[in-house]
Amino acid sequence: MKSALFEIAAKRRSVYALGKDSPLDQGAIRSLVEEAVALSPSAFNSQSSRVLVMHGAPHVKLWEKILELIGAFAPDAEALAKTKAKIDGFKAAAGTICFFEDQATIRDMQARFALYKDVFPIWSLESAGMLQFLVWTALADKGVGASLQHYNPLIDEWLAAHAGLSPDWKLVAQMPYGSIKAPPDEKEKIPASERVRSIG
C-alpha cells in the first residue's frame, strides 16, 4: 500500500508561474509555517531554524531589491532581460517565505557539545532542508504553488536591516508562493532502483 505521505509529497514541484490569489490567506500561511517549524526535527533538539513570512509590499520590495543587486552582475542587456523576467515571475507571487539558521544557537550548541563542534553547521543545514521540504509539501497539499530560490548571501545584509532581523539569522533560502498559473514542466527521473542499494 502506498504511503499517504508519499502521495502528498508527489504534489510538491517547483512552480514558477505564480499568482497573487493564493488559496490560503496570510494568516493560514503563517499558521502552516508555524506548524511546520514545530514539527521539524533538529540535531540535539537545537531548534536553530528561523523563518520570515513576507507578503504585500515587503514581498514585492524583496524581489525588486534582488533584481537591483543581481542585475549589476549581468554581462549584457540580453542576460539582464532574462534575469528580470525570472525575478518578475517571483515578484508576481502572493508572498515569500525566507528561511534562516540562527548562528547564535549553533555557537551555543558547539560550546555545549565540543565533541561535535565541527558538524553542528552541517546538522543545521540538514534541519533547514527538512523544514523547507515540510513547508513546501504542506503548501502543495493545499494547492499553493512554490519554488525554492537561493539569492543569499547577496541580499543577506539588506534583508536583515529591512526586516529588523538579528544579524545572527543567516539566510539559507527563499520560497516564493502563490496560486498556480501554469503547471510545472515534466522532469526526467533516474530510476530509484539505480540510486538505492541494500545489503544484509
Tell me, what is the CATH class?
A: Alpha Beta
The CATH topology label is NADH Oxidase
User: How would you describe the shape?
Assistant: globular
Low-confidence stretches: none
Topology:
Layout: H1 4-9, E1 18-19, H2 26-39, E2 49-55, H3 56-71, H4 77-91, E3 95-102, H5 103-112, H6 120-141, E4 145-146, H7 156-163, E5 169-180, H8 192-195
Antiparallel strand pairs: 1-5, 2-3, 3-5, 4-5
Helix pairs in contact: 2-6, 3-4
Quick summary of this structure?
The chain has helices at residues 4-9, 26-39, 56-71, 77-91, 103-112, 120-141, 156-163, 192-195, and strands spanning 18-19, 49-55, 95-102, 145-146, 169-180. It is an alpha+beta fold and 200 residues long. The longest helix has 22 residues, at 120-141.
Describe the structure.
- This protein is of the alpha+beta class.
- It has one domain (15-181): NADH Oxidase (3-Layer(aba) Sandwich).
- 48% of the residues lie in helices and 16% in strands.
- It has helices at residues 4-9, 26-39, 56-71, 77-91, 103-112, 120-141, 156-163, 192-195; strands at 18-19, 49-55, 95-102, 145-146, 169-180.
- Helix 2 (26-39) packs across helix 6 (120-141) and helix 3 (56-71) runs antiparallel to helix 4 (77-91).
- The radius of gyration is 18 Å and the shape is globular.
- The model has no long low-confidence stretch (mean pLDDT 95).
